[in-house]
Amino acid sequence: MTRLGISGRSRRNITRVCLLLLALIFAPVMARSQAGSPKVPRSLSITLRPFTTAEEVPAFEVELSFRGNATGEQVLALPSSWGGQEKLYQAIRDIEALSPNTTIKDSDQPDRKRVEFTPGKPVRFRYTVLQDWDDDFSKHIFRPALSEETFTLIGTSFLVLPEWNEEIPLRVTMDWEIPTRWTQADSFGIGEGKARVFTATLSQLQTAIYVGGDYRLHTFSVRGRPVHVALRGKWRFTDAQFCALAERIIEAERAFWKDDTFPYFLITLTPTEESGKDYQGTGLTNSFAAYADQQVELMTVPGLKHLLAHELFHTWNPLKLSREGQFMEPQERHFWFGEGFTEYYSHQLLLRSGMVTRQEYFAQLNDRIRSYYLSPVRSTPNRQIEKEFFTSDAIGRLPYQRGELLAIRWNALIRSATGGRSSLDDVFHDLRRNASRYARLRPEQAVAALVRQYAKRDVSADIARYIIGGEIIPVSADAFGPKVKLVQKKVSRGKDAAVTVPQYRTSATR
């Protein structure tokens, strides 16, 4: 998730979702329209109906059914905390049983209910979802957003699900009973006026996007695979321009990974309607959700171009680098890799694909280096970042900065040791090939071991000093070849003494 984003507020929001997503998302599932596999042990049916309450408040009625177990008891898990949002269960109202001999009771936890039923019989219940906020949407993008014209939902914000193993595949039937004039799209398919059947885990249902109403739907193909775009609102660019940019970025990143295993992919773009909030985004199951001020630029960096490149790279880092697609807990401990190395590649792949020039690349890189060296919190140890990543913009920015500079440093080490025959790219390709070895990725071990194979140098000391300890990362003088020089500039910090800031200079930027 980018806070799971990237300019102060934007970056942090981008990442917030991102690594939070990194924390919660599992590898994308292949949505299918078939009836499912006989190996799937359980089935889950979900029906969703928008309606207006007696108080004329837009709402959703959600109905779920599944076969009960042999004990006659089941715990239901309500939305709780996700993406920096707390008490998500406050949006859930009026849970009631619909199946015979079924009762739903409170527990000693506000995000848990207990269901009692006839053992082995179907369990059916319904509940209401309301929008529980009325101020700044950019602060609540992961809470249910409902109106008479549209809806934007994340699974973790509105789904009440049985407390089963989150990693077991289920046969899911999802039926959207929405007005015929509305469009609908989610992480598992495009609404076509009938129930869809697909295979997914509970985790994938939760870390998924569900939108509809006045969203405009578009479809294009990347390397022979369909990509869907759902967006609403009026922007400074056309739908076609947004789709064209998304197509170029997806093409570049799938080509980098040599990975086209995407039978379905969705991108949503939703306006925040609050001026000055820039942009945010998060990678989700089979999808990427973007949120932006309608005045945001499409092609500048930072801007939507960078947001797309950053968040789409999370489709692999970390989602396809281990069996569960997650880092070891606590997730925030590894954001230097999940966010920072993703930051490195988002800029690199824009450069390699010609979507930014060399002049633009180094000008923007120099701005990021300057921001890091002038940061009053630049020496914050990683254990403090774990605690304050979502509460402090300045501290939340550090994993991006540290990770990108460390990626530049290690790429230079590998190229130097191999005479240019190998690079950090080889490390990432090896990580992808070795993904089945790890239930969850511990980058300080797995990544460091691969870098050592190529660079013939143990980089564990770099992690200990610069990531864990918070020492200032030196900028590599030889990172970009002989045509790019490293110079030192004195930069004033107001009343404080001037700081020496390293900057890259090319013949085109002198």
Describe this entry's structure for a reader.
This protein has 510 residues and is α+β, with helices and mostly antiparallel strands. Helices cover 30% and strands 26% of the residues. The chain has helices spanning 9-24, 155-158, 202-206, 239-257, 304-313, 335-338, 340-352, 358-374, 382-388, 393-417, 424-433, 443-455, 460-468; strands spanning 42-52, 58-67, 73-77, 92-97, 103-106, 112-116, 122-130, 145-146, 150-154, 161-162, 170-176, 183-186, 189-190, 196-200, 209-213, 216-222, 225-231, 266-271, 279-284, 287-292, 484-493, 496-506. Strands 4-7-2-1-11-14 form a 6-stranded mixed beta sheet.
Summary keywords:
globular; 510 residues; six-stranded mixed β-sheet; 13 helices; five-stranded antiparallel β-sheet; disordered N terminus; alpha+beta
